[in-house]
Design a protein that fits this description.
Length: about 180
């Protein structure tokens, strides 16, 4: 098991009967659900059936609003990293990929991450969707508004961990067109 979170986009949500017809790959991140993934599924967050595993451990959310939130935070983080060419390249790659893979929904697959603990995977996903994601969104919104400078500085200091995921049209779990 690679222990990654996987983020996709699609024009419909998976349900008990079927997965979306066209699933686009966004990114994968090793060992946790990074801040970027949490923000992208931070608007209209709902738990859906997984497209990969059996339990209901997928998370779906509004694509446009989640992508806008991430872009706004990247802009705020970038105000302290103007001389960092690596950060600028990461932002350019990320935003270009999000534009290319745009759909109606983000779909986050967390099965490998929530299976790393002894917890019940569906309970872990419920906690992620109801506590961790909203907390990340609230922190990001406050930072964007200039009311959370300490948190923003901590994100800026460790931006690779939060934003430098593997963005690609092909992920470990990819779906045929």
């Amino acid at each position: 098991m690679a222990n990654r979170s996987y983020l996709y986009s699609a024009d419909s949500m998976p349900n008990e009967a079927k997965i979306p017809e066209r699933i686009r790959c966004i990114s994968e991140h090793s060992w946790d659900v990074p801040l970027a993934h949490k923000l992208m599924v931070g608007r209209g967050t709902t738990i859906v059936p997984s497209m990969i595993w059996n339990p209901p451990i997928g998370i779906a959310a509004d694509y446009d609003d989640g992508a806008a939130l991430l872009r706004n935070l990247l802009h705020a983080v970038g105000r302290g990293l103007e001389e960092d060419a690596e950060f600028a390249a990461c932002v350019a790659r990320t935003t270009a990929h999000l534009e290319q893979q745009q759909a109606k929904y983000f779909l986050l697959e967390t099965g490998e991450i929530v299976s790393m603990t002894d917890d019940d995977p569906p309970a872990s996903v419920r906690r992620l969707a109801s506590e961790d994601v909203p907390e990340a969104v609230a922190m990001a919104e406050a930072a964007i508004a200039g009311r959370n400078d300490d948190w923003l500085a901590s994100v800026r200091a460790d931006w690779q961990q939060h934003f430098a995921s593997f963005y690609s049209e092909t992920l470990y779990f990819s779906f045929p067109d």
